[in-house]
Task: inverse folding
């Protein structure tokens, strides 16, 4: 049973073949790794079936881990417009599943995720993975997509805490 003050965050790194997911608990400035993994779709299925597989997988994660908030990495534009469109559709599913469950969803650009975790917006995947291991003791890297999703969750935790502090300061100043 988690502390009532704990906020559980689901981070999602959307992809049509592999959507990484990671769940962390946030209590003040303490971050705790809860779970992570990857939702797969079969690339021999048609697009609609693949999107259903992603939706069903994310829905199951939500049922199992009961997050309070979700964070999704924004799509960057590829050189291939067809790939970008398919990634956008997977991202839509990553946003839809938590929203349908009544969970607030935030979005973060890849450079902000990297800057929040590593301190540099152009960090490479290895640097992000290394920092996730440091920030979330107990995390064992098995899939890069899961580490990326945890980075999105950590980014959200940092920025949500900042919004809360600023909101509290602004509310106090208004009194």
Result:
């Amino acid at each position: 049973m988690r502390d009532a003050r704990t906020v559980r965050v689901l981070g999602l790194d959307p992809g049509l073949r592999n959507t990484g997911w990671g769940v962390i608990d946030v209590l003040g400035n303490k971050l705790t790794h809860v779970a992570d993994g990857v939702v797969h779709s079969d690339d021999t299925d048609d697009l609609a079936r693949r999107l259903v597989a992603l939706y069903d997988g994310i829905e199951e994660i939500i049922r199992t881990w009961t997050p309070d908030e979700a964070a999704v990495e924004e799509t960057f534009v590829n050189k291939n417009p067809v790939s970008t469109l398919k990634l956008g559709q997977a991202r839509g599913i990553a946003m839809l599943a938590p929203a349908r469950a009544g969970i607030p969803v935030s979005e973060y650009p890849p450079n902000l995720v990297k800057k929040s975790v590593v301190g540099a917006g152009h960090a490479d995947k290895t640097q992000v993975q290394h920092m996730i291991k440091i920030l979330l003791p107990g995390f064992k890297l098995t899939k890069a997509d899961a580490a990326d999703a945890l980075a999105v969750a950590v980014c959200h935790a940092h920025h949500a805490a900042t919004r809360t502090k600023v909101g509290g300061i602004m509310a106090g100043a208004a009194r």
